[in-house]
Amino acid sequence: MKITFLGTGTSQGVPVIGCECEVCLSKNSKDKRLRSSVLIEKNDKNIIIDTGPDLRQQSLKNNITKIDLVLYTHAHRDHVSGIDELRSFNFIQKSRIKAFGNKELVNQLNKDYSYIFQSQNYPGLPQVDLEIIENKFSFNDIDIIPVKAYHHKLKILGYRINDFTYITDAKTIKNEELKKIHGSKVLVLNCLQIEKHISHLNLDEALNLVEKLDVEKVYFTHISHNLGLYEKINSILPKKVSLAYDNLKIEL
Ligand SMILES: [Zn+2]
Ligand SMILES: [Zn+2]
Ligand SMILES: [Zn+2]
After folding, report:
1. Rounded to the nearest whole angstrom, what is the distance from the C-alpha of residue 215 to the centroid of ligand 2?
2. Which of 4, 25, 74, 94 has the fewest CB atoms lying closer than 10 Å?
3. Domains of the chain with bracketed CATH
4. What is the pTM of this model?
5. Which residues of 170-197 are buried (b: 16+ CB within 10 A; e: fewer)?
6. Which one of the ligands is nearest to 149 CA?
7. pLDDT tens figures, 204-221
8. How far is the CA of 21 from the centre of ligand 3 (A)?
């Protein structure tokens, strides 16, 4: 299984438009973050988690020419608003694309993107089959386990695929859901900034959560410019934890 981090930034991305902080002005490419998403390549299938506003750029940069499945975490714009870019994949693949998310996500996308999910089929629209999932399911012999979490009060999903678990925009995760993460070789977890935040884990909270989990390696994602410079923060993290960065590739 091959994982590519397509984006590792919070909703505004890094640099933030007009910001002159040291992170936004940094020359280090690891301080430049598109909106969060990952590509998972397994058994000749391409699975993408979320379709944020940078999906077009991310697909071009990483030469993605096929998407077999979209797993949605939640319906905030920084995770869904690139949904129209799926049209390009419909055109190449000459097929519809399957997408899954929880009930909250499916209801919200049906409202916010009604032109896609309405019954009359206007030519050129994204061809997406969106379905609710809440429990473990299989896609082409790939077992996928949804992990339920809360983003302040909003119910969101993370996903575990074999030994890889991806959770973003979480603030709290119940103990019974944490059990689904145990034993992962790689966990990707959101870590917004140093200061506390109402709907995201901050650095202390993310590190405390990692302490409780039986996982080999952790990458933090959904990072704000307020977390600090990549080099500075990455160097003070425990050995098994690293900051993710855009275009980082891992195999497991
Ligand atoms: Zn987000
Ligand atoms: Zn900044
Ligand atoms: Zn969010």
Report:
1. 32
2. 94
3. 2-135+142-243 (3.60.15.10)
4. 0.97
5. bbebeeebeebbeebebbbbbbbbeeeb
6. 3
7. 999 999 999 999 999 999
8. 23
